[in-house]
Amino acid sequence: MNKSDKPVKLGTIPSLIFASRWLQLPLYLGLIVAQGVYAFHFWVELVHLVEAAFGNQEALQAIFAASGQRSAEAPTHLTETTIMLVVLGLIDVVMISNLLIMVIVGGYETFVSRMHLEGHPDQPEWLDHVNASVLKVKLGTAIIGISSIHLLKTFINAENYSEKALIAQTVIHVAFLLSAMAIAATDRILHAGHQNSDKPH
């Protein structure tokens, strides 16, 4: 074994500081619990949608209220708008769940400990080249997708929102978009700078 291959022995303080990364473990476990809550919520909404399709009035009123619609009269049947809003809500849950997976798996792999998934048939493709910078770009993209779903739901149900709320949501979505573009551009500039510095002069 080469001298450079020997494990580095850290001092007490550096070892303590490095070991503090394990304090993040309860946070990731908490996100797994949150993932379970989202999965339960998904199935509750899906069951309500199916029951409403078969004429259950309680389920119809539940999804009507959950979709943010307002009406002077109680709904008597499913409408295309209600179905669309419920389905978009389900897609929203799935996208947030995907975001949670990226944070849990990518964050643990990057900041806590290696998971040694090399060669595993279910290893996520993106995990091969994940680092803090790539993770930020992927999270930004996922947040834009979630914001887009929320904005689409708002515009479909625009009659129940004020003009101020519509403008505010649009501005927030554009801010998310610009932030993600800035993060991606910064990452590209830094990556190009590292490549140039590695080239032999």
Order of SSEs: HHHHHH
**In what range is the share of β-strand residues?**
under 5%
Q: Which outline best applies?
A: elongated
Number of H/I helices: 6
Give an overview of the whole structure.
The structure is a single chain. About 70% of the residues lie in helices and about 0% in strands. It has six helices and no strands. Helix 2 (about 25-55) packs across helix 3 (about 55-65) and helix 5 runs antiparallel to helix 6. The longest helix has about 35 residues, at about 165-200. It is elongated.
Topology:
Blueprint: H1 12-19, H2 25-53, H3 57-66, H4 80-112, H5 132-156, H6 163-198
Helix pairs in contact: 2-3, 2-4, 4-5, 5-6
Compact description:
The chain is an all-alpha fold. It is built from 6 helices and no strands. The chain has one domain (23-198).
Question: What characteristics describe this protein?
Answer:
201 residues, 6 helices, elongated, single chain, mainly alpha, 0% strand
